[in-house]
Design goal:
The complex is a heterodimer of chains A (about 110) and B (about 110). Chain A is built from no helices and 11 strands. Chain A has about 110 residues and is an all-beta fold. In chain A, strands 2, 4, 5, 9, 10 and 11 form a 6-stranded mixed beta sheet that branches. A 5-stranded antiparallel beta sheet of chain A has the order 1-3-8-7-6, with no helix packed on it. Chain A starts with a strand and ends with a strand. Chain B has no helices and 11 strands. Chain B has strands at about 5, 10-15, 20-25, 30-40, 45-50, 55-60, 65-75, 75-80, 90-95, 105, 110-114. In chain B, the strands form 2 sheets. In chain B, strands 2, 4, 5, 6, 9, 10 and 11 form a 7-stranded mixed beta sheet that branches. In chain B, strand 7 and strand 8 form a beta hairpin. Chain B is globular and about 40 Å long. The chains are: A mainly beta (about 110), B mainly beta (about 110). The interface of A and B includes residues 45, 96 and 98 of A.
Chain lengths: ~110, ~110
């Protein structure tokens, strides 16, 4: 079946450093790649997304890059802050009826040390 | 962003009883809603895709007679866990999809079956 792999599973950085999380997907038809941040016991929050017609998107300290040929995409967080600590999930769309459904990666626990 | 509510936030029930969880999109109409299950420190596992006015599409391995889904309007989908057992204890999260594929999540329901 369709699969999204995510690495690393845990990531610890010092405040102010950059963090990079990488995902690969298997469905070449995937065309939408969101990233979610989930704090403990809370709902996943959409933080950035990218569509297959662009290679990079940036929103302040957060950026996402997409390599369709290699079928991988990455989340980049610069100047990390303690409040960035959370679990981050990547996802890739796959056709599921009228609306694309999302297949989620396994998550990355990011810890930003003050 | 789009707001999705979910009720109840927590429920504790006895084994053998049924539990209904509601998911509402508050400020937009969602033709498609999704139901996920999340175990502690794990990723979101898609259970089913709920389309307004039609039968839900279940993922492989998800029992449709155990997890009843109703999507009666463009703003409401319900998940009923029938004859719940301790192994059904989990965090259940719904999402509502906008037209371009973005999914916005509800706050989740923590189900504990005694």
């Amino acid at each position: 079946g369709e699969n999204v792999e995510q690495h690393p599973s845990t990531l610890s950085v010092q405040e102010g450093d950059s963090a990079v999380i990488k995902c690969t997907y298997s469905d070449s038809a995937s065309n939408y790649f969101p990233w979610y941040k989930q704090e403990l016991g809370k709902r996943p929050q959409l933080i950035i997304d990218i569509r297959s017609n662009v290679g990079e998107k940036k929103d302040q300290r957060i950026a996402v890059t997409l390599n369709k040929t290699a079928k991988h995409f990455s989340l980049h967080i610069t100047e990390t802050q303690p409040e960035d600590s959370a679990v981050y999930f990547c996802a890739a769309s796959m056709r599921g009826g009228a609306t694309n459904k999302l297949i989620f990666g396994t998550g990355t626990l990011l810890a930003v040390q003050p | 962003g789009a707001v999705v509510s979910q009720h109840p936030s927590r429920v504790i029930c006895k084994s053998g009883t049924s539990v209904k969880i509601e998911c509402r999109s508050l400020d937009f109409q969602a033709t498609t809603m999704f139901w996920y299950r999340q175990f502690p420190k794990k990723s979101l596992m898609l259970m089913a895709t709920s389309n307004e006015g039609s039968k839900a599409t279940y993922e492989q391995g998800v029992e449709k007679d155990k997890f009843l889904i109703n999507h009666a309007s463009l703003t409401l989908s319900t998940l009923t866990v029938t004859s719940a057992h301790p192994e059904d204890s989990s965090f259940y999260i719904c999402s509502a999809a906008l037209g371009l594929g973005e999914q916005f999540f509800g706050p989740g329901t923590r189900l504990t079956v005694l």
